[in-house]
Amino acid sequence: KSYLFHQDPKKLTGLSMVLFTFILLSAGLKYKIRIPWLERIGVFSYTLYVTHYASIYLLKLIFYKLGLHFYEIYILYGWYLGIGIAVGLAALLYYVAEYPGIIYLEKLRTKKLKLSA
């Protein structure tokens, strides 16, 4: 009868995310709660938002090629690995591609301001 509870981890994860977000938003500013590792992830949070789906899909393909024939990730350690891969890939893409692009655009903007002044 384990199939009756197969959706519970998704519900618990969603509920814990909502609770954690509520705590961070309501009490974080009031009591100056700071979580340094979340602040570091916040630097490349948009890249993580854009690439997380592709990272998880890549992990699912790897699992499939390894003989774990499933279309959903049911293994808890698979999710942990997926989170690590998604965060790691987003950080890599940010620091390799996005950050140098931001620096280059800033140089172009300051150069344009100097020329127009």
Can you describe this structure in just a few lines?
This protein is mostly helical and 117 residues long. It has helices spanning 8-27, 36-43, 45-65, 76-116.
Describe it for me?
This protein is mostly helical. The protein is built from four helices and no strands. It has helices at 8-27, 36-43, 45-65, 76-116. It starts with 7 loop residues before the first helix and ends with a helix. Helix 3 (45-65) packs antiparallel against helix 4 (76-116). The longest helix has 41 residues, at 76-116.
Number of strands: 0
Strand content: under 5%
Tell me the distance between the termini. Answer: 74 Å
Question: pLDDT average, as an integer?
Answer: 82
Rg calc: 20 Å
- Share of helical residues: over 70%
Category from helices, strands and their pairing: mainly alpha
Main sheet attributes: strand count, strand direction, barrel closure:
none
How many DSSP H or I helices?
4
Shape: flat
Question: Spans with pLDDT under 50 lasting ≥5 residues?
Answer: none
Order of helices and strands: HHHH
